[in-house]
Amino acid sequence: MLFPTNLLGMFFALTSAFVWGGGDFSGGLATRKSSPYQVLVLSGFAGALGLVLYLLVWREALPSLNSVGWAALAGLAGTVGLASLYRALSLGHTAVVAPTSGVICASLPVLFSIFTVGLPGLARLSGFGFALSGIWLVSASSETNAGRVSREGLLLACLAGVNFGLFFILLAQVERGSVFFPLLISRIVELAAVLLVLAFSRSPLPSVKDNPIALLAGVLDVGGNVFYLLAKQFTSLDVAAVLASLYPASTVMLAGIILKEKVSLRQWAGVMLCLLAIALITV
């Protein structure tokens, strides 16, 4: 009996979330040694190199011009999202910025699918609700900074979430069967944008030997992209995007296991909600 394609897509989406979570965890470690943009350069280079190697092995056919355009737009959206998120986090109030961007990122593909395809079933819709709540809780740190988050910080968090959601939607428009070429185009656009930022800010180019963990972050980030694009080819956009958006749970768990960071009760509750969401969505 063949494995149902819808469940295969969900499996790829969950794998994408786990791999992306590992990439974020590695990227967080890398930013302790270098600036975020320097880390993005190294990770972008490693990711692009990995995709080239994939292409040499699989010999994927060239995508259509439409897919190239969608991939390039996804790369721009991803770059703006990362830049906005890093700037928002630099202003403080991580406990508001991270979950705000995460929930918006997961919500946009669901809204897009509702308008283009229609409402999902009640169980799956409930799963989406639990997933959004879980993402909010698991992304929120335990910090209790006094005062309210600045208007700039909140706007940047929203901008990051919108662009991450657009990344999901735009990348999902790539034609079925095209995986590595569109992702390579997206990665090249992202890398070029970050290099321009470094040039305008007159920041030095990073050294690979000084921060090798950034290379691992790039490889894992591209791996997450690959699994997400595979997921979209076997299941609907809303399901693929919401399940892939559960990556903060993976990041939190890795931080607790490897760095022995304390996981708050609120974050554990978020993890439980994410698991409940997975059960409802995959029914």
Structure description:
The chain is mostly helical. Helix content is 76%, strand content 0%. Helix 2 runs antiparallel to helix 7 (180-200) and helix 3 runs antiparallel to helix 6 (151-171). The protein is globular and about 50 Å long. The protein starts with a helix and ends with a helix.
Topology (SSEs and partners):
Elements: H1 5-30, H2 36-58, H3 65-90, H4 94-116, H5 122-139, H6 151-171, H7 180-200, H8 213-232, H9 237-244, H10 247-258, H11 265-281
Helix pairs in contact: 1-8, 1-9, 1-10, 2-7, 2-8, 3-6, 3-7, 4-5, 4-6, 4-9, 5-11, 8-9
Number of domain modules: 1
Radius of gyration: 18 Å
Query: End-to-end distance, in Å?
Result: 19 Å
Instruction: Please give the largest β-sheet.
Output: none
Task: Outline the low-pLDDT stretches.
Answer: none
SS summary, helix count:
11
* Helix/strand order: HHHHHHHHHHH
* Broad structural category: mainly alpha
Structural shape: globular
Assign a percent range to the helix content: over 70%
Task: Calculate the mean pLDDT score and round it.
Answer: 84
Relative strand content: under 5%
Total beta strands: 0
Oligomeric form: single chain
